[in-house]
## 1
Amino acid sequence: MMTKSEEEEQNMLNDQTEALNLLQTDEEHGGEESGPEEEDNGAVEYPGTVLPDPHPQSIENDADLAAEYPSDSEYLDLIHLKITSLEDLNLSRFKKLESLCLRQNLITSIGAVADLPVETMEELDFYDNRINHISSKVNQLVNLKNLDFSFNNIKNIKNIDKLVNLENLYFVQNKIREIKGIETLQKLRNLELGGNKIEEINEVLLKLPSIEQLWLGKNRIAKFQNLDNLVNLRVLSIQSNRITKLEGLDKLVNLEELYVSHNGIEKIENLDKNTNLTVLDVTSNRIEKLENLSHLKKLTDFWCSYNKISSFEEVHKELGGLPELDTVYFEGNPLHTSNPTAYRRKLRLNLGSSITKIDATYVKG
């Protein structure tokens, strides 16, 4: 056991040693106070703080993303991974691939689709990327059934004319001005071109009688035309355009759903031949009178909010006898705004017993 004097001497020695160590540490850091430890990438790690991504727009090695999939994979989903290059994915490795989904990435060039297996590929999805140009290599994938280029920067539809087995084609939210380059797609059933800059329904559609669903919302179309040959069309959506007149639909005898909301239509007319309609959406137009509807015996949904309808008598005359009518929307019309309290009660009195929903609210029994 140490004596008191020996303990004091040992403590003094320990203090001197600690002071010497601190001095050496200060010299190594340039005499400044020591701070958080820096990692190799320059990011400073603070306790409880998420490190910033030094490359926020890309992943260093795209090849690693596909490497985890076995070479005999039939489906490849690489979604929201900041992929910039198809070349790095080594797609030629997947000899049995049927579906490739590359949604929500940063891809600009797609020439490497040439590495995909022609015989097996049926679905290719580039939804939400940065593609400006459709590579001619896409035309090699002749067995594709589904092709999605929605939410890109494409101005021209081209290099897909040999994809004669396509059934579903999506170009939603691009910069397309003209419908073209699809005349040869005789098996096409669903065509989505909403959110573009299309000004005209041109003659190309006359060559595509197989189409069952046509989506043209949010364009600049002013007139219904060139639809006569679409005898199989079941769904037509042309919302948020510049349509002022319902016309040119008399050949669409199999039409079941018609969406023409947010246009400048003033009159419900020319639907005499469309007796298979189940859904009719004329929301946010300039319609003042309910008319020419009583023959639509299969109608289940009639959406007419934010127009200028004021007569409950017209509601009774045109809709009261429709046996399948289930849902109606009339909010924002004068028959609603003039007396909101009595509005629902009066609607119920003038509609048939089949009604279950008024303005998104279920009718009480």
## 2
Amino acid sequence: MKNFCYLILLVAIIGCQNEEGFKIDNEYEQDYQEFKKRIHEEHIYYLSISDMFELDSASPNTFGSSPENKFQLKDSTAPARLGSIIFENDSLIFHSSPNVEVKLENDSVIDTYNLISLDYRGHSINMYHENYSWYVNSLENVKLLRIMDSRNPEISKFPGFQTYDLNPEFIFEAKLTYYDSPKVIEVPVTQGNTREAEFIGSIEFEYKGQTHSLDFMEGNFIMFGDKTALTETYGAGRYLEFTTNDNKTAVLDFNHAYNPPCSYSGFTTCSYPPEENWLELEVKAGEKEALLNKS
């Protein structure tokens, strides 16, 4: 009986560890829960986007709930006019409406602000009024105004996101190769368009005797697809970041794969994996297809 119990325990231990020694233990699960919390918060953020408008350089871009605005918000309870955005030479100037208090992240109140300062994503600074916030996203020759509403009904409808059970089989010690100069590849983007993306290296791993490789971008960022797409996972592919051990090896953990923003909101813009990054295998790890309750 003792030998039988020991055998069961041994099988349980081996079942949570792969051939490369990666295992799912308490510390791993705690870290993973932190990852899930961050991803959940990002999903809620995407679901809070209630409106998106393409700015017009030739006229004032007024926005609010009133139909007299150039851009009318869906929420009829919003202020009649939150403000306007005007192109002035090389600047993009926001003007708040009278009696509408607009704040920045540091809580300072502003009447006029230059939105042309962009971060690495092409996003301007966020502005806030009560449960609303907004920013401008620059995409090549297009500037988009995105409106967020922390009370957007889509948030309360969200049933949470689903993932595969944690699987040590999809944690790999991977080999890194950095390119002498970035490889430029045309990648699919939202609405059937393409854009040029720079990939700085490749990451190679072995699974069931087969070698697979993926191109990665700055920030150890990977866009990939696999044979679970359309049946169990998001059809356009998933995202993943990896951690480096040194300049030659990395830990590639597909349990941390997550869906692009476009799987949750039509008001986002996404890049998708190039053809080279579609794997000829089923990656049964990470986030599954988005669960969205539209009732």
